[in-house]
Amino acid sequence: MPHKPELETLAIHAGQEPDPTTGAVITPIYQTSTYAQESVGVTRGFDYSRTANPTRLALEKCIAELEAQKLDQPAYGLAFSSGMAAIDTLLRLVKPGEHVIASNDVYGGTFRLFDKVLKEFGLAFSYADVSQPDVVQMALRPETRLVWLETPTNPMLKIADISEISARVKKYSPLIKIAVDNTFASPYLQQPLSLGADFVIHSSTKYLGGHSDVVGGAIVAKDWASFEMLKFLQNAVGAVPGPMDCWLVLRGIKTLALRMDRHSSNAMKIALFLEGRPQIEKVIYPGLESHPGHEVAKSQMRLFGGMISVIFKGGGAAAHKFAESTQIFTLGESLGGVESLIEVPAAMTHTSVTGSPLEVPEGLVRLSVGIENIDDLMDDLAQALKKV
Predict the structure, then answer these.
(1) What is the pLDDT of residues 342-357, one digit of tens each?
(2) 7-253 and 257-385 have identical folds
(3) Which of the residues 4, 50, 254, 269 is marked catalytic?
């Protein structure tokens, strides 16, 4: 059996053979809505771009091969117009009266969808500390059909032991599926399907795209039957990305490995730099030995990623002052781009959990560490700290 290519190679070549018509090395942008048919109902594989588009198909194959790199079987990818569209589509597999377990610090947009939209259609949700497999196990019910994991979580950066949770859940009931939002890690750092997950979800806006110039989402399914159901929903609901968006994500993926190495290296140095600063109560980063999930992260991640959360002793006022004082770190939402970003989740990305059990500390600052020169980044943080 030939050697399976490593992820760095797959990121450049998977699903992206030279164009058969022109020999173009880069996948063309098939900016078309419809396709000529050879005769009535006989196509060359494409009839309408909501159903399928060659540029989108290349992206779907690429992401699937990245997530399946450690598997001895294929996986199956679908691209969407946003990460939230991908999540909404996957949750349509859960029926009214069935139950979902999610992280108790899940991303605010995910919580809003679960709590304010899907709950109204008869789905039941409960929230558990996914860093504790015992807690997840105790939350299981006979009607549970999905366990939703983020690891690292957003924004508290908790680590879920995917293998341990998957084993316990499957022992409880083979009917329950495991879905992992792998946005923070990317398939370069972590491949949940090889650890027991059934689905992987991405906001491809983030590290996959990597340049803050596109919005997109993706689902990768481990089994064909689930893929077929999701493919039907993708076409029926229609939340698909345009070919230009798909092309931008494909372009970004080609440098994923290089960027994630640099994101992770910079973040590790910054986390160590921030630890022990008098203004800071706690630095949360899976690469630090002080992180309670450090050993699990080390076992299932190649590196520890580019996301850091910091809790300030001075609460919200200190967090706001710090976030507004940086010069290279841009104050803005989102993450995973080549540029460094800074935000205060309680007042920005996570306002939807305010007043709920998932509320985040007002003094929490989230850093998306970019790929700039590390000395420049640390100088910027140092001058901002002096103003707190």
Answers:
(1) 999 999 989 988 888 8
(2) no
(3) 50
Q: Helix, strand, or coil here: 140?
A: coil
Q: Please answer whether residues 331 and 276 qualify as being in contact, where contact means their C-beta atoms are separated by less than 8 angstroms.
A: no
pTM over 0.85: yes
CATH number of 7-253: 3.40.640.10
Task: For the domain covering 257-385, report its CATH number.
Answer: 3.90.1150.10
Instruction: Decide: 75 and 222 in contact? Cβ < 8 Å.
Output: yes
Indicate which residue of 56, 76, 105, 107 is catalytic: 107
* 106 touches 265 (CB < 8 A): no
181 given a catalytic annotation: yes
Instruction: For tokens 């979580």, name the residue.
Output: 153
Sequence letter at residue 264 = S
Of 326, 347, 343, 323, the closest CA to residue 335 belongs to 343
pLDDT per residue as tens digits for the range 156-184 = 999 999 999 999 999 999 999 999 999 99
Phi first, then psi: give them for residue 150, nearest 5 degrees: -110, 135
Q: Is 87 exposed, middle or buried (0-12, 13-18, 19+ CB in 10 A)?
A: buried
Edge-first strand listing for the sheet containing 217-221: 76-80, 217-221, 199-203, 177-181, 144-150, 99-103, 124-128
Please report, for the chain, the start and end positions of each structural domain, with discontinuous segments joined by +.
7-253, 257-385
Contacts 24+ apart (CB under 8 A), 330-334: 334/205, 334/206, 334/212, 334/368
Q: Distance between CA atoms of 222 and 178, rounded to whole angstroms? A: 11
291 in Cβ contact with 310 (< 8 Å): no
Kindly list the distances between the CA atom of residue 190 and the CA atoms of 17, 62, 179, 195, 236, in Å, as whole numbers in the listed order.
25, 16, 14, 9, 31
Q: What's the distance, CA 340 to chain centroid?
A: 18
Q: Write the single-letter amino acid at 316.
A: G
365: left (phi over 0), alpha (psi -120 to 50) or beta: beta
- Helix and strand element counts for the chain (H, E): 13, 12
- Catalytic-role residue among 56, 145, 177, 206: 206
Question: Could you tell me if 73 and 111 are in contact, meaning their C-beta atoms sit under 8 angstroms apart?
Answer: no
